[in-house]
Structures are given as C-alpha cells and as structure tokens.
Amino acid sequence: xxxxxxxxxxxxxxxxxxxxxxxxxxxxxxxxxxxxxxxxxxxxxxxxxxxxxxxxxxxxxxxxxxxxxxxxxxxxxxxxxxxxxxxxxxxxxxxxxxxxxxxxxxxxxxxxxxxxxxxxxxxxxxxxxxxxxxxxxxxxxxxxxxxxxxxxxxxxxxxxxxxxxxxxxxxxxxxxxxxxxxxxxxxxxxxxxxxxxxxxxxxxxxxxxxxxxxxxxxxxxxxxxxxxxxxxxxxxxxxxxxxxxxxxxxxxxxxxxxx
Length: 259
Prior knowledge:
Elements: H1 2-16, H2 20-33, H3 38-50, H4 54-67, H5 74-87, H6 91-103, H7 110-124, H8 130-146, H9 150-166, H10 171-188, H11 191-205, H12 210-227, H13 230-249, H14 253-258
C-alpha cells in the first residue's frame, strides 16, 4: 500500500512536469500492485490524452468505467470518455454522453458536474452554438472554482478566451482570460497548460503585436524543449519563423515614407 502511494504520487508529479513516459512507467507499477485501482486508469487516460493518443486514453477510461460501474465514480469516467470523444471530433457522441450524465445530476459530485458543463461548453464551440458554449463554460467555471479545482478552472478560462476572440472579437477580454489561465497553470506547475496558454496568447498577438507574439512563443518554446513536447515544438518553430520574416523583412515606417 505504501509503495502504491509513493508510485502514484511520483506519477502525478511526472505528469504535471510533462514527463509522460515516466508517469506511465510509475502507473504501470501501480497496476502491478493493485490492478483494480480505478484512479490509476483515470490518470493513465489523462496521460495519454496529454500525449494526443486519444484512442489509448479512451481505452483506459473504459477500463476504469468497467471497474466502477456499480459506484458513483462511474460518472467521472463517463465525463472523461465524453471529453475524449470531443478531442476525437465526435461532438454529437460527446454531447449525448454529457446529457446522459446531467439526467442523473443528483447522483453526480460537484467535481464531475462542473467538468461535464465545461465539456458541453467546449463541444458547443465547434458546433457553432456560441451562446450555449459560453453559458455552459461559465457554469462549469463557477462550480470548479467553488471546489478549488485549479486545473479545470484554467481550462475554462482558455475556452472562454477562444469564444471571446474568435466569435465576439473582444481581444482585451480574451487576453485577460488567457492570462488568468496562464497564471493558474504556472501556480500549479502544469507545464503542458503553460505551453497551451502561451501558444494561444501568441496566436492572439500575432495580428496585433508581433513582438509580444514572439515573446510568448519563445517562452513556450523553452518549456516545450524542457518536457519534449514535439508537436508543440513544430508549431512554435513554424510561427517563430513567420514572425521573424515579418519583423525583419518588413520596411520600417521611415522607409515606407521615403518610398
């Protein structure tokens, strides 16, 4: 039991600091000690989701669902499965899963309920129902803040920022939401979250302030190198290359006046 606790704690630390392979190693060790520990399957699902391996993530969430089928914890796994469907672009399937959870609202704990609202908000954004998206995200944000769940609170701010920038064209409010998310991710040491917030801020700035965009991408690049986030590194180098072309090949205001 003590070895299990130590391995699981080490897995959580590795996950937060972006060392997914080490986290998987510790979690596999936990499963050898106790193959019926459902929280290990939940964390394994999170780790693979973070790696972008959504089908593997779904596999572990389904294993956790099977173990917890006769308990209230089943709703947590259903919510995680809904989130993974949304990552796979299966929005209607994810939406149905969330709606089924909300039908049993009285049996669902606050943490899972807040998460379900967040997922619905995230689903409605690509479906083009922006008012519904905002409403669900704000409801999820309120619940998750009330229970001190910082990681999902930050995710709510990210999604609200996307809504306000892409749909409502409110750059200032979008920037504020991204900065709130970044501050929370930095506070809890969630490296992948830091990269996401900096990437999104960089994209926000790229049309309005190239120097700020470059600064965000360089900071994200430093973190991505640290944790070996290969997909993010490709995106960052691409954007930094574009910014450098714009910054150092565009004529200065004085040169434009001369011409």
